[in-house]
Specification:
about 200 residues, alpha/beta, Maf protein, 5 helices, 6 strands, about 30% helix, binds inosinic acid
């Protein structure tokens, strides 16, 4: 049983593979199938996740898992949010822009959201889950692990350390993506065992 991971983001791929390893599914990437990264045209994480999952499922004829995620900063009214990947052209540029925008700001509260959507091969059944991690934006980037904004994000549950200073198992245990995948895990196990999921939920 194959499951297509409908993302072109290598950081997400690594994490989803690690979290779902052992679930009994063969995890294939868009690159494995020479498919392009899907569009994210909507203004909510949930809509974008569903759009990615259904587009990739229909293109490949496989069950597909879409992930739309991002960082929401309180003092910036929730920005960059769904535009997290497009905040600046490079990961480094995005982190620098965020730090610059918060230069004079004392309230540094923020959270990550991850919306997941699991689509049937015909795109007609969608199963959803969401995860969130709360924390704050550090004064400077720290740590080498993870990807994206990880060096700037101090999760509440790991005081004093950024996500990029956590081992991957620690990040996955408390992260938005780890939590969303744990919520979807029963359905993914059922899919692996039975090869199908009947009811939309
Ligand atoms: P998208 O879901 O493809 O729109 O991209 C989400 C963007 O949000 C990524 O490119 C990262 O910049 C950021 N992001 C999402 N999840 C994480 C994470 O776990 N750590 C760090 N940055 C993340």
């Amino acid at each position: 049983m194959k499951l297509l991971l409908a993302t072109g983001n290598p950081g997400k791929l690594v994490e989803v593979r690690e979290i779902l390893g052992g679930a009994g599914l063969e995890l294939v990437s868009l690159a494995d199938l020479h498919l392009p990264s899907p569009d994210e045209p909507f203004s909510t994480f949930a809509e974008n996740a569903a759009a990615k999952a259904t587009a990739c499922a229909v293109q490949s004829g496989l069950w597909a898992l879409g992930d739309d995620s991002g960082l929401c900063v309180d003092a910036l009214g929730g920005a960059p949010g769904v535009f997290s990947a497009r905040y600046a052209p490079t990961e480094e540029g995005r982190r620098a822009k965020l730090l610059a925008n918060l230069a004079e700001v004392r309230d540094r509260g923020a959270h990550f959201i991850c919306a997941l959507a699991l689509s049937s091969p015909d795109g007609k059944r969608i199963f959803r889950a969401e995860g969130r991690v709360d924390g704050a934006i550090a004064l400077a980037a720290r740590g080498k692990n993870g990807f994206g904004y990880d060096p700037l994000f101090l999760p509440r549950e790991a005081p004093g350390r950024t996500l990029a200073e956590l081992e991957s198992t620690e990040k996955n245990r408390l992260s938005h993506r780890g939590r969303a995948l744990e919520r979807l895990r029963p359905l993914i196990l059922k899919l692996a065992k039975e090869g199908n999921l009947a009811e939309e939920c």
